[in-house]
Design goal:
Length: 469
Amino acid sequence: MTTLPDTLPKAWRPPMGWNSWDSYGTTITEDEVLANARFMAKHLKVAGWSTLVIDAGWFDPHAHAHGYSDGTPLCIDEYGRQIPDEHRFPSSAGGKGFGPLANAVHELGLELGVHVMRGIPRQAVHENLPVKGTGLTAQDVADTAHTCVWNHDNYGLKRGDAGAQAWYDAQVDLFASWGLDFLKVDDMQTPFFPEEIEAYHNAIAKAERRYGRRITLSLSPGGWVASTHVDFLRNVAQMWRISDDLWDRWEDVFQQFPRLARWAPLQRTGHWADADMLPLGHIGLRAERGDDRQSRLTIDEQKTLLTLWCMGRSPLMVGGDLPTSDDDAIALLSNPALREVTAGSANNREIVRERLFAEWNVEESYIGDLIIWTADAAEWADGTPSAHPGGHYGAIFWTGGDPYDLKGNIQLQSFVGIDGRNRDWTLIDLWSDAPGTASDMRLEGEGEDRVIRGTIPAHGALWFVIRPF
C-alpha cells in the first residue's frame, strides 16, 4: 500500500506487475487474483514485481470468454457506480467492494488495481440514477452519442461539463475508499479525449487528498497516440499506452521497435510510455483471444520482448497466469536486470537500425533488421546507486528468421563513446542465467579496435552491460 505523503513521485520507476486480461479476459475470479498475488509475493516480488490489475468486466455477472457481454445488466450501486460481481468476488458482499481483496493484497506487500472504461454505465443512464453529491442525474451528465466503438457498457460524458467531473469524482472516490492503488482507464486515447483524461486526473487528485493514499493512472489503448501529446500526458498520468493490444505473435513484437524508439527519449521519472502487456507464460485460459496455451513466442522472442521493453523503459505488465506458467517464463521474469535497467538507466535510445540483405541492396534478398540500443547506467530515482557506475547498457536485436553472426562489425565505441574507447572495459551478459539460446557474446580486439562479437538467434537479442574495470 502506498500512502501520502511521499517524497518520491508516483511510479518513480516503470511499474512492474500482472494484469488478468491475457489469461482471463473479463472472467477473472477472486481466488485467481489471490493465487497470482501469492505467487508474485513468493517468487517475483524480490525482482521488482509489485502490482496486480483486475482487467475489464469485474462488475459483469454474465462475463464470458472471447468477448464482452452486450447490454446485459451490470453490478452497480445506487449511484450507478460499478461494484464487483459478488459471485466471482465473494468478499465484496455487503457493500465491501474490493476493500477486503485490496487488504489481502496489501498484506502481501503488493498493490491492487482495476480496469474501468471511460464514461458512465448505460444502465445508470437508462435508470436515471442520481450522481452522488449533486442534484443531477445520469441523464443530465451523459452524452449518449459519445460512445466506445468496441465496448457497449458505457455512454460517454459531456466533455468539460461540471456534472461529468462530479460523476468521475464519485466513481474514483468509491475506488479509493476500497484502497485501490492503480486505475487502468480505457477508451481514453484512440481517439484522444483530453477533457476526459484531465477530468479523471482531477478526480484522482481529489480522492488522494481525501484518503491520503496514492493512485497511479494508466491510460489505454494507444493506437495512433502522437508524441506531441507528451507534455499534456506528463501532467495527468503515470502511464499511457502507445499501441493497440499486443499478443503472442512475432509481428506484434516487431511493430513495437519503431514505437519505442520514438518514445524512449521522452520517458521521464513518474511518467511512462507503455508498450502494453507481456503475453508471456500461461495465457488464453478464458481470454478474449486464442486457446488455452503457453505463450507462442519462442524463448528467444520472449527475451527480445523483455529486452526491448526494458531498454525503452516501458512498464512491465505480464499477462500470463503466474502459478501455471512454465518454468522458463518465470525464470525470464525473475531476472533482476529487468528492474535494474528500467529503474537505473538514462539516455535510452536506438542508435542503429539497418535492413540487411543476402545480396547487396537487392530487395528480394532481405533477411532482417539489425537494431542496436544503448543507455547509460544511472542512479535510481529513489537514490539507489547504479549497479554499474560509469557503465553502459546495450542491446543488439536481430529480426531475421535465421541466426546472425555479428562478424566484428559492432564497435565498442558505439556504446562507450570515442573518448572512452581506450579505457579498460568488461562485458556482462544480462541474460547469462536465462533459458533460451546460449550466448557466445564477447569483446575482441585491443584498444580502439575492440568490437563485440557473437551470434544472435533468430528474432533474438544480445543484452549486456559494459562496465569499466
